[in-house]
Amino acid sequence: MSGKYLDHLGRPIVVVTGMGALTSLGQGKKDNWAALTAGKSGIHRINRFPTDGLNTTIAGTVDFMNPEEVSAPGISYAMADSTAEEALAEAGFGKGGFPGPLYFAAPPVELEWQHRFELMGEKPGSNPGYGQLLEAAQASRHERMHSLVQLGTIAFRLAEKYGTKGLPISLSTACASGATAIQQGVEAIRRGDTGAALCVASDGSVTAEGLIRFSLLSALTTQNEKPERASKPFSKDRDGFVMSEGSAALVLESLEHAVARGATILGVLKGVGEKADSFHRTRSSPDGKPVITAIKLGLEDAGVSIDDIDYINAHGTSTPENDRMEYNSLRAVFGERVHSIPISSNKSMIGHTLTAGGAVEAVFSFLTMREGVIPPTINYDNPDPDIPLDVVPNVKREATVKTILSNSFGFGGQNACLVLGGDV
Amino acid sequence: MNNREVWITGIGLVSCFGEGAGHHWETLGGKTAPAPVIDSERFKPYSVHPLPEMDWSKQIPRRGDQRQMENWQRLGTYTAGLALEDAGIKDNEEIVGAMDLVVAAGGGERDIAVDDSIMADAVHRNDREKLLNERLPFDLRPTLFLAQLSNLLAGNISIVHKVTGSSRTYMGEETAGITAIQNAVSRIQAGQSTHLLVGGAFNAERIDLFLTMELGHFVYRGEPAGIHARQANGGGMISGSAGAFLVLEDAEFARKRGATPYARLSSIVSDLGSREPQAASARLDTLLNSLEIPSGTAVVSGASGHGPATELEFAAIERKFGKDVATRAFTTMIGNPIEANFPAGIALAAMAIRNGGFFAPFEAAEKPLDGAPSSVLVSTIGHNLGEGFGLVEKV
Hints:
- The structure holds two protein chains of two kinds.
- Chain A is an alpha/beta fold.
- Chain A has two domains: 14-110 and 149-421, Peroxisomal Thiolase, Chain A, domain 1 (3-Layer(aba) Sandwich); 114-147, no CATH class.
- Helix content of chain A is 34%, strand content 17%.
- Chain A has helices at 29-37, 72-91, 113-122, 130-139, 143-148, 153-162, 177-191, 208-216, 255-260, 289-302, 320-334, 347-350, 357-371, and strands spanning 14-23, 26-27, 44-45, 58-59, 102-105, 169-172, 196-203, 246-254, 267-274, 311-313, 343-344, 373-374, 397-398, 403-410, 414-421.
- In chain A, strands 1, 2, 5, 6, 7, 8, 9, 10, 11, 14 and 15 form an eleven-stranded mixed beta sheet that branches. Chain A has a two-stranded antiparallel ribbon with strand order 3-4. In chain A, strands 12-13 form a two-stranded antiparallel sheet.
- In chain A, a hairpin with a 2-residue loop joins strand 1 and strand 2.
- The two termini of chain A are 16 Å apart.
- Chain B is of the alpha/beta class.
- Chain B folds into two domains: 6-108 and 149-393, 3-Layer(aba) Sandwich (Peroxisomal Thiolase, Chain A, domain 1); 112-142.
- Chain B is 39% helix and 21% strand.
- In chain B, the strands form two sheets. In chain B, strands 1, 2, 5, 6, 7, 9, 10, 11, 12, 13 and 14 form an eleven-stranded mixed beta sheet that branches.
- The chains are: A alpha/beta, B alpha/beta.
- Chains A and B meet through helix 3, helix 4, helix 5, helix 6 and strand 6 of A and helix 5, helix 6, helix 7, helix 8 and strand 6 of B.
């Protein structure tokens, strides 16, 4: 392979040639970008299910799709299908299939209450409970229900529809999953296993039980009065994240593969960094070491220095702990310079899209570089004095951005950082 | 670039027979196979290969950690500890701190008592969604969520065993285990990792999982029988609780630290597509023909027991190796441990290679093998979708 196609470590350069995005702000990159740069929030009152008695009654649900079933797998598939289609169309892959594997950041899917109630209705005379559900299942095959609750189904269906190669891969690193899907695509291309990879992430798991689970861990905001004002990363009165839905898809290719077929290059996946944390199931090490290490490994992998980073796309969940930890870790890596690098959180507008977050925010980061506009952190009216960052408060900013750090952290000690570039 | 050799240097295995590579070889590697351990009463009409009695404290010393997990996570964390111990690196903070972790996981654990009780209340309610809001915030244990997230087995392994290089979790029933091993091998071969802990765990003793499988009519409801005997009745899956973890190392890394390998994991292939017999058979043939399989190779099969899938698998093996090949469907003995199926197959194959022998036939239909196979092909055809093969060879 010619040197111009290789990075600073002699590995194939990985580029992006197609992107798709979908959040509560809308379907497709165009609508999302218009809303993001206008500082618009997609967070609203939940009307998918009754919220009587719940501590949190708002979310960034995606209610404009037409899924085959209103359930986590149904909505997640519909969104993933939409973003994959958008990304493949932009990259110029059509009906002939896609010349590489699928890496899919998969949401948690399982039998939901609506399914249990449906099965109960099929055996009304039996004693209520799992015995009754089993009787219903034994009586006739429930192919659709079975397929929906298999953890690999969404990826299998995407692979079949878009003709990706080999065994489609479903992965989870909790709220870092979107970044992990991209990281795995990068690694496969660097290994020379493939010239292209389709990386998709999707999460449509706002159900009553899903919301309650996060509530029980005190992770969600309870500022329900003004939904669009509730997600306020880096503000003093932040009190939790907003659960949201969304999806993103990225077509990755080796530079050589992209150039050979004359594809338009939208950006570069310069580096990935990852480090697991053994401190706690839901909290980060108080010393921030794993996060600091993940950021440093990402910069090292990309072959860039801290001075090269001219914007940081924060994980910025709006929980008291995450935002403080993220700031402290960034300060440890960047030193005083961290106070002058613009850093914003897309989650102030779209909420936390969980499994999809890392990929959604990577797409928005590439758009930031291409458009020369940094989306703001909205709802920043009450700055946290302990986090003196330039969060691009409330209003978008025009800027030349060439290299971005994008952070993703998840339960289970998952930390993944992406370093993204605008040009090869 | 992608030519580094991958060694298996540690095995953790827990099944209905007990725990440890040594114990499993002693139990299954003799002249005659023992009777499988099956419980046909607890989940009647279903049978299951249950976990043996476990003293979790042996690998999960802190009670607090045990309490934060459900059984599939305890089992996985426990088995991961066995693998690290077997590789002689359990307390080597430097090595495990830089070790990559790859886990095949399900998830979605339920609190059955809570669910049953809500369903009982729901009978008398038309506003069932409101009922959920009344009950769930008070009845769900907050920590249950941490047993429902797929990646929290990996999280627990990091916490308990301090394995903190990278951490990735794969999902998708049997394909999760295939992907995990394939990804691990690719990364070592390409120099992206020097040493990895990879595997999965499955707790079959959950009524909610029987329900999921029964929705697709995959479960066997008759008198328990081996895989071949079941095929004669149309097949059906009997699942089993099991954990299987492997320590995989770049041979150079392993040599430097003086590790003794069980075997070499030379190649993994996988695919997924329609289960229509002609297309699926062609796909399996292509996969098998892409491997350089030495003569004298025996087969360790994770046949699910599901009729059509098992038929496809056995027919493909017969086309490739002929009628007389020694195939051992280990699922006859320990049940199908779904996500842990492929890792368990690789573990059993590696034991046979190290010990220079093979397993006694697990059923009358399996051909005996005198002496040792030159290498072992591991086969996992998912009960629903996906398939993979791996080749385990002598170092």
